[in-house]
TrEMBL record, chain A:
Residues 368-398 are annotated as: Disordered. It comes from Kaistia soli DSM 19436. It comes from the Bacteria. Coiled coil: none annotated. InterPro entries: MadA, NagB/RpiA_transferase-like. This is Malonate decarboxylase alpha subunit. GO terms for molecular function: transferase activity.
From TrEMBL, chain B:
This is Malonate decarboxylase beta subunit. It comes from Kaistia soli DSM 19436. GO terms for molecular function: acetyl-CoA carboxylase activity; carboxy-lyase activity; transferase activity. It comes from the Bacteria. One of its GO terms (biological process) is carbohydrate metabolic process.
């Protein structure tokens, strides 16, 4: 007779093995490693929660301390490979196979380990893709997650940095997996229930908060005049003509400059209420002046941001908040919102090639994708119209009859022709291709494909790739804004002038912008302290961003 | 001494909309500071940009040089009085002292010594000696310190203004300690070893350079004013620095054995009172400040009277 409940029986055996170490569901921090050794089996798929922001840091250290004779060859399926411990697991042989989405701070080491064969790579995903696979073919056997607090029934408060937790728990708990949470404290009543207790099997009392990286804090003091110029070009040359109200911003300094120019430069252009009103966006501190000046109507967030809790609590009209008053973030939902409900993504990259493909990898680093490819891609399943989407569609295809013409999402790459450490942003060939060769990957790690990119903004101007009618035009449009990089110097001057005459390339002067006006005095805030003042003292920046 | 809010015309940093209000000292370049600090149009530069007196060493390291080697020196007028003035550009190699950079300042202060009547203003914005020309830089620091003392012995006030991006570190901190008066803003920092240097040498347990609030509680303008290392605290506005500088050049900058003895006593007392304390907050509490935690967030107009009441005021020293 067929046995249809084997997974459930296996889950129950695991719980039984772990329960000896627990009081109810509560396990002392000192017993965390023993708990993991009891519950996890060799070869299991394990989700160790962590992304570009929050980390189940205690549980990752506990897993690393496990005996490799008992726990080995695990298949890690996790958003972020961020902590050194995440890779130490592979060095020790506890983990063997890896499917992940983001590895920013470990990008150099992970590349070395992939190259050295220490890690058997499944694939590098976007967040949304990895989440999707949790429900199809990468469902975790065990999820190790992080929460702010728990009650004795295991109800979890994940607080402002809820992020990936609901998605991970959904996939694990409803498919007979085990959910183990580290929490900062055990309380009688959690402030709000983010994860119901019947989905949580064990709670480890860490006695301290989980680690969170302040990823989205950009110090306005570091914004350069060139970045201000690119921000002015974007606002006047893209936001305004397309009437972009629903959007996502990347985390770079150019987009921070845009946020800080809305109440000054944007105000002068009379754009308030006409652009940048609805965001899929983390609670960027740089957006505080625009919010205070009445520009922003609503923001849904992937995660929270260190120091923003007090401000968010006081502005529930803007943010999504729970019954306890604090932010409720959700990475999966916000990624979907960015993909389907936003008309524009604007962000920075490290390298752009002649077809407009862009990548943040260099030959020695594998940073992963995070969320940018979902934000920065045209959603082919989108069916609802909006003015910017229809206008971009018409730019790309003036011929088809309007009722049958797809709209286009605006996907904008913004940056200086020479980026960090004076590395050229424009290249003939992406380093990603060489990396793929070295690691024998089927796909080069391209962050945003050229056919999704609609505009490139540099200090030299805007290239509207929607208006290009051939690959050759596209190449010259890109060369035409590539400044003094080798790619820019190799432009066909006549072709570029022709593109400018057609409005494919727009120079600052074509938009009535004098580069000499790009001055730091245009920024609504020029320091972190300015942001604190704008917030009425509600923003409490992390110490590393202070200069007082 | 302090500059009142009315004189400085300053709002606390950031409470003003951008583009309006007083010009930030911190944001300004060396030449913008000179333009706005001195009486309008009075600045005449020595070894001006067209002279292209640049570092002879940087090319060896494949590094770009700058037309003024990161410092502008010259003469001008301040409140109608002739002054000699030097402004470091913190955005070129962190305002670091190289051979030419140092020689320009040495020459300026020696000229002040010889004139024996014209006050000197040094607009510090420096991380210290430039590593690529360290020997020349270290020598320059020693020469400048000697020139400052000689100028002061000749009765010349030498006033340091500190509020730039790079702070006033390394040899800059040593020269600052020789000045007859220092004016500092919250953004200004004075120290010899910078945060990263301390952390590298003594460990993160001794000093976490990424904890910037700690850095400011240890080296920042408010702390330096409270313990008497800087005599005047101003808001981050060029106008506030100007008003304070006008006052300072009117004071007696002369140095003699009595002043040195008073300075030695001031420093001894400081070590005795605060030497065992772990954190600026402990020192501020020991000074009697009611709510030390509130000091970092305090706007200038609140802090200045607080510092006058509780801070160390040691003007007979220096």
């Amino acid at each position: 007779m067929a046995e249809w409940q084997q997974n459930r029986a296996r889950r129950d055996r695991r719980i039984e093995a772990g329960i000896k170490l627990a009081e109810g569901k509560i396990v002392a921090a000192g017993d965390a490693t023993r708990l993991l050794e009891a519950v996890i089996q060799p070869g299991d798929r394990v989700c160790l929660e962590g992304d570009n922001q929050k980390q189940a840091d205690l549980l990752s250290a506990a897993l690393l301390a496990a005996d490799p004779a008992r726990l080995n060859t695990l298949h890690m399926v996790q958003s972020g490979v961020v902590l050194p411990a995440h890779l130490d697991l592979f060095e020790r042989g506890i983990a063997k196979r890896l499917d992940y989405a983001y590895s920013g701070p470990q990008s150099a080491r992970i590349a070395a380990m992939l190259f050295g064969g220490k890690i058997e790579l499944g694939a590098v995903h976007t967040y949304l893709e990895l989440f999707a696979r949790y429900f199809i073919d990468l469902t975790p056997h065990v999820a190790l997650i992080a929460a702010v607090s728990a009650d004795r029934d295991g109800n979890l408060y994940t607080g402002p940095n809820t992020e990936d937790t609901p998605t991970v728990v959904e996939a694990t708990a409803f498919k007979d997996g085990i959910v183990i949470a580290q929490v900062g404290e055990i309380v009688d009543h959690v402030p709000r229930v983010d994860i119901p207790g019947d989905r949580v099997h064990f709670v480890v009392d860490a006695g301290r908060p989980f680690f969170v990286e302040p990823l989205f804090t950009r110090d306005p003091a570091l914004i350069t005049e060139t970045q201000i110029l690119t921000a002015m070009l974007a606002i006047k040359g893209i936001y305004a003509p397309y009437g972009v109200r629903r959007l996502n911003h990347g985390i770079g300094f150019s987009t921070a400059a845009i946020e800080l120019l809305l109440p000054t430069f944007g105000e002068r252009l009379g754009l308030k209420g006409k652009i940048a009103t609805h965001f899929a966006l983390n609670p960027h501190p740089a957006l505080i002046p625009a919010i205070e000046a009445g520009w922003v109507e609503q923001i849904h967030s992937f995660g929270s941001e260190v120091g923003m809790d007090g401000y968010i609590r006081a502005r529930p009209d803007i943010y999504f908040t729970g019954s306890d008053g604090s932010l409720r973030s959700n990475r999966a939902f916000s990624q979907v919102a960015g993909l389907y409900a936003c008309d524009m993504f604007i962000g920075s990259t490290l390298q752009i090639d002649l077809a407009g493909n862009s990548s943040t990898v260099t030959t020695s680093r594998v940073a992963g994708f995070g969320g940018a490819p979902n934000m920065g891609s045209d959603a082919r399943g989108r069916r609802h119209p909006s003015e910017p989407w229809l206008k971009a569609g018409a730019d790309a295809d003036p011929v088809s009859p309007a009722p049958l013409r797809r709209g286009r999402k605006l996907v904008v790459q913004i940056g200086e022709t020479f980026g960090e450490k004076n590395a050229p942003q424009f290249v003939e060939r992406l380093d990603a291709i060489e990396l793929a060769d070295r690691l024998k990957l089927d796909l080069a790690p391209v962050m945003i494909y050229g056919d999704d990119v609609t505009h490139i903004v540099t200090e030299e101007g805007i290239a509207n790739l929607l208006l290009c009618r051939s690959p050759a035009e596209r190449e010259q449009a890109i060369r035409g804004v590539a400044g003094y990089t080798d790619v820019g110097l190799a432009r066909d001057r006549k072709a570029v002038e022709g593109l400018r005459a057609r409005g494919v390339i727009c120079r600052p002067e074509d938009l009535g912008i004098d580069p000499l006006d790009a001055d730091r005095s245009l920024l609504a805030a020029r320091s972190i302290k300015d942001l604190v003042h704008w917030s009425g003292g509600l923003y409490d920046p992390p110490s590393r961003f202070r200069n007082w | 001494m302090h500059v009142s809010r009315a004189e400085s015309g300053g709002d606390p940093v950031g409470s003003r909309p951008a583009g309006a209000g007083p010009r930030s000292w911190y944001e300004a370049s060396a030449r913008q500071r000179l333009d706005l600090l001195l009486d309008p149009g009075s600045f005449a530069e020595f070894l001006a940009p067209p002279d292209r007196v640049v570092s002879p060493h940087l090319a060896l390291f494949d590094l770009p040089h700058q037309f003024d080697d990161g410092i502008a020196v010259g003469r001008g007028r301040l409140g109608g009085r002739d002054v000699l003035v030097a402004a470091q550009e913190g955005r070129f190699m962190g305002g670091a002292f190289g051979e030419v950079h140092g020689a320009k300042l040495t020459g300026l202060v020696k000229a002040a010594r010889d004139l024996a009547s014209t006050p000197v203003l040094i607009l510090f914005d420096t991380g210290g000696v430039r590593l690529q020309e360290a020997n020349a830089g270290e020598l320059a620091i020693a020469e400048i310190m000697r020139a400052v003392i000689e100028a002061r012995a000749a009765g010349v006030p030498v006033v340091g203004l500190i509020g730039g991006r790079a702070g006033c570190y390394g040899g800059g901190g040593l020269i600052a300690a020789c000045c007859s008066a220092l004016v500092i803003s919250e953004q200004g920092r004075i120290a010899v070893s910078g945060p990263e240097v301390i952390e590298t040498n003594r460990g993160v347990e001794e000093f976490d350079s990424r904890d910037r609030a700690l850095v400011w509680r240890t080296m920042g303008g408010k702390h330096r004013r409270l313990i008497g290392a800087a005599g005047t605290f101003v808001d981050d506005a060029v106008a506030a620095f100007r008003a304070a500088a006008i006052e300072c050049i009117g004071e007696n900058g002369a140095i003699d054995a009595a002043v040195l003895a008073a300075e030695q006593e001031r420093l001894d007392t400081r070590v005795q009172r605060f030497g065992t304390m772990e954190d600026g907050l402990d020192i501020w509490a020991a000074l009697g400040i009611p709510d030390p935690k509130s000091v970092p967030g305090m706007p200038a107009e609140t802090f200045i009277p607080l510092a006058d009441q509780f801070g160390v005021n040691g003007h007979d020293a220096r």
